[in-house]
């Protein structure tokens, strides 16, 4: 089957979702009101609450939610064949992610731009709020550990990307100085930054830096993981304008360039789908598609992380309430497009089925490496770029995204530790450096504890990360559902996705529990039980909240 | 005839200039809007420390630069109220320096 056909089908379905379904949701369910005074206007302070142009806000929202996760998840999930992954990404974006993201913005905007965490406390209950904190902490922990493992794997496999990836950090540092000290104009600086970044990518293949397989008794992979956490710890402690701000900006530009290049190459080359539509011949040890598919692809179909961004910063800057549809729903569509590109690269970018099967030898294999190699194959044949350069380009894209998420995640984890220090009155824990060390330590424990001292087993926890992410999404959907019921509006459009997510998440956790037990991996077994308990608590919260609402309703009618 | 062409070029230049300034506006918004809050807070923290230095002598903390900071006090008077509120003091902490 032609990849262009798949691409067009996917884009058409997402476009229909945006133009038809999101219109229905925005007008009939959330009833977004153009005259509603949003918190950005009500509490305008020029700092947090600033009414922002909706295109700018969309750009910010999209680049904060789009990271490496919509690349890694789909690229792992195509092991079951491309059709299941494709369907879940497209339908998930239309019926789950878009509704969830715009719903989170709406819920927050209608409640003084409070975060989902605070809203869970107000709307659902105190207990739910504590569960929420624990789930957030688990998500951050896993995302940091997994991404460190992913980038370390990329650095080992694609040595040509080492210089551009670390050089990009240098470029960002220089750009930050140019803007704040030299006060240079931004369009000028953008051009300089992008040219410098792509020049680095261009020279990358001629200056490969290969980490030896073993250094002083420690595997090269483990060294990369340690170096990455060292970087993330320093980056999360620096003032934001020094590194984070310019780097996010460059990353955002790079995201659009990367997407355009990849989509353009697919259109020019028109490769055919090499991977089977449904893979009957999955490698031994691959878990069943149902329910694992729905937690393997979290970002790209639905992701709880988006709710944090939607209610954290986006809702404080929303100019008009009706913009929630464009920013939230179309932001989800943007991420769906990234996931779609990842699926196409990881299934159509191979010369033969044998090549593809050699990549996907076991569950958790392939992944981002398949995305890079497949994507490089397509770009090389479609646009004529040398394959090594194309591979470097995509590696840099994936590694920079994962790196951005890592230091943001570490910063957030540090805040949580500091908050715990505040709650339990531990002065030492409130110090930024100490809290950062605690955050890094817990992540390292997970990265190395999950499997093997070389840290190569870290990707085993990917589905576990998906489950926690879905739980977070479930909690946000619960908040939106409760709000809708209280307003006397239909609740099925948010309750159905919520129920589906909870069932799939709990089923996946039970299956994984069995796998970890059989493997004798007691560390992950323990972690699985923690997530499972959280999942069951979330389900109970849902039931009790809905019951309470049913009792409330007759009382109101009297 | 040549005048027309001249005007056409002027108009085109004007359009390009407008487009460029629009592009600059968008780029600057995209660059600064995500971090506006974090940077403003960091700046406020620095300003708060500066306030403490300027008013330290009045609160009994010796300051070798008091002679110079005294001159700054009238200039910072406007910010005094917000500052002491932010520092968790409902009223002005200084006996002889009432502000609210």
UniProtKB/TrEMBL annotation, chain A:
<dbReference type="InterPro" id="IPR003706">
    <property type="entry name" value="CstA_N"/>
</dbReference>
<dbReference type="GO" id="GO:0005886">
    <property type="term" value="C:plasma membrane"/>
</dbReference>
<protein>
    <submittedName>
        <fullName>Carbon starvation protein A</fullName>
    </submittedName>
</protein>
<feature type="transmembrane region" description="Helical">
    <location>
        <begin position="523"/>
        <end position="546"/>
    </location>
</feature>
<dbReference type="Pfam" id="PF02554">
    <property type="entry name" value="CstA"/>
</dbReference>
<keyword id="KW-1133">Transmembrane helix</keyword>
<feature type="domain" description="CstA N-terminal">
    <location>
        <begin position="364"/>
        <end position="508"/>
    </location>
</feature>
<feature type="transmembrane region" description="Helical">
    <location>
        <begin position="390"/>
        <end position="412"/>
    </location>
</feature>
<feature type="transmembrane region" description="Helical">
    <location>
        <begin position="130"/>
        <end position="155"/>
    </location>
</feature>
<feature type="transmembrane region" description="Helical">
    <location>
        <begin position="433"/>
        <end position="453"/>
    </location>
</feature>
<feature type="transmembrane region" description="Helical">
    <location>
        <begin position="223"/>
        <end position="244"/>
    </location>
</feature>
<feature type="transmembrane region" description="Helical">
    <location>
        <begin position="329"/>
        <end position="351"/>
    </location>
</feature>
<feature type="transmembrane region" description="Helical">
    <location>
        <begin position="186"/>
        <end position="203"/>
    </location>
</feature>
<feature type="transmembrane region" description="Helical">
    <location>
        <begin position="492"/>
        <end position="511"/>
    </location>
</feature>
<feature type="transmembrane region" description="Helical">
    <location>
        <begin position="256"/>
        <end position="278"/>
    </location>
</feature>
<feature type="transmembrane region" description="Helical">
    <location>
        <begin position="85"/>
        <end position="109"/>
    </location>
</feature>
<keyword id="KW-0812">Transmembrane</keyword>
<dbReference type="InterPro" id="IPR051605">
    <property type="entry name" value="CstA"/>
</dbReference>
<feature type="transmembrane region" description="Helical">
    <location>
        <begin position="290"/>
        <end position="309"/>
    </location>
</feature>
<feature type="transmembrane region" description="Helical">
    <location>
        <begin position="459"/>
        <end position="485"/>
    </location>
</feature>
<keyword id="KW-1003">Cell membrane</keyword>
<comment type="similarity">
    <text>Belongs to the peptide transporter carbon starvation (CstA) (TC 2.A.114) family.</text>
</comment>
TrEMBL record, chain B:
<protein>
    <submittedName>
        <fullName>DNA helicase</fullName>
    </submittedName>
</protein>
<keyword id="KW-0547">Nucleotide-binding</keyword>
<dbReference type="GO" id="GO:0004386">
    <property type="term" value="F:helicase activity"/>
</dbReference>
<dbReference type="InterPro" id="IPR058303">
    <property type="entry name" value="DUF7990"/>
</dbReference>
<dbReference type="InterPro" id="IPR047717">
    <property type="entry name" value="CC_star_Cory"/>
</dbReference>
<keyword id="KW-0347">Helicase</keyword>
<keyword id="KW-0067">ATP-binding</keyword>
<keyword id="KW-0378">Hydrolase</keyword>
<dbReference type="Pfam" id="PF25952">
    <property type="entry name" value="DUF7990"/>
</dbReference>
